Amino acid sequence: MVRESAPLTVAEVKAHPEYPHVDWSLKPTKKAEVTVARSRGGPFNLAYEIHGHGPHKILWIMGLGGWMRAWQRQTKDFGHLQADKYSCLIFDNRGIGASDKPLLRYTTSEMAKDVVELLEHVGWTEERSVHVCGISMGGMIAQELGLLTPNRISSLNLISTAPRIVRTLPYLENLRNRINLMIPKSLDVQIDNLKHDCYSDAWLSQPDESEHTVSPFPTNGDRICAGEVDKRTTPGALTRTGFLCQLAAAGFHHKNAEQLKHFGDAVGRERILVVHGKQDRMIGFVHGEMLLRELGGEEGGVTKSFHEGLGHVMPIEMRKEFRELIEKRIEKCTGPGKA
């Protein structure tokens, strides 16, 4: 049933009894910081957590302006409900959350080198041992990671991302909206823009489908609003400097067809999944088609998961289906003779 009334305002969301519980109490197996980039403009620290203690290791790489808490559904589904089977590594990229926010040029390749140092720090370095899930800018970082350490990757799951940005008008409009997030205006307007860019209208208007502690929010969109308000009101979590530096990294990410061929050869096309929603208003569907084609397509062994009516964030909009998809990828890529 679709809710017909208007979305809650920021003030109404903050007054809702569920707002204090929007970040779930998921106790990590390990929580720490690692110093990276000592010879690359640093040093600076990345905050990270490991959830679960199972043999299947999953690295989750978040996108532009997103912090590690945005993976909480997957952290719970894999690292808590199946803690004996999976180990989940989540972290804040440079420029966001509890990680440092240095003012320097960010690139997706440098951010991938941060990830390499993080993986080395936690000891996730064995051949074909890590399942990588990267969304949006995180998928761009994952591409660079695949070029840096292809033999360590067991499966590479590229979600709502692009090898490079095609400069279409819709994208530029959305890019302007993202920049406008940092320009003073009401928080209600900022979050309305973000919801429009990242989620499908139909899903936003549906009743809140997430777990609740006191009572559910009226709609999925209201819960998304609560999460964004929490991030934006957490001191130091989202800064102008960090956001704009990340934006530059995502905007200038560029992998051409020849580089993608090499990437597919190095990682192994049977290990690569491309996920994209056809209603993605942040990184349009054309980018998913381009990524799939230039990696070699389904005929070359790449797995495709394209979805009608889906926005930018499948792990949230289609949580159950996404969990099942990643479980199948892990099973396929770590079966007999695949490790």
Structural notes for this entry:
There is one protein chain. The chain is α/β, with parallel strands linked by helices. It is 40% helix and 15% strand. The chain is built from 13 helices and eight strands. Strands 1-2-4-3-5-6-7-8 form an eight-stranded mixed beta sheet, sandwiched between helices. Helix 3 (108-122) crosses helix 4 (137-148) and helix 5 runs antiparallel to helix 6 (187-198). The longest helix has 15 residues, at 108-122. The model has no long low-confidence stretch (mean pLDDT 94).
Our count of helices gives 13
Helix content: 40-55%
Give the class from helix and strand content and strand pairing. Answer: alpha/beta
**Overall average residue pLDDT:** 94
* Terminal-residue CA separation: 45 Å
Concise overview:
It contains 13 helices and eight strands. By secondary structure, the protein is an alpha/beta fold.
Structure characteristics:
339 residues, alpha/beta, 8-stranded mixed beta sheet, 13 helices, globular
Topology, element by element:
Layout: H1 10-15, E1 30-36, E2 44-51, E3 56-61, H2 72-79, E4 86-91, H3 108-122, E5 130-135, H4 137-148, E6 153-159, H5 169-180, H6 187-198, H7 201-205, H8 220-233, H9 240-251, H10 257-267, E7 272-277, H11 285-295, E8 303-307, H12 314-317, H13 319-333
Parallel strand pairs: 3-4, 3-5, 5-6, 6-7, 7-8
Antiparallel strand pairs: 1-2, 2-4
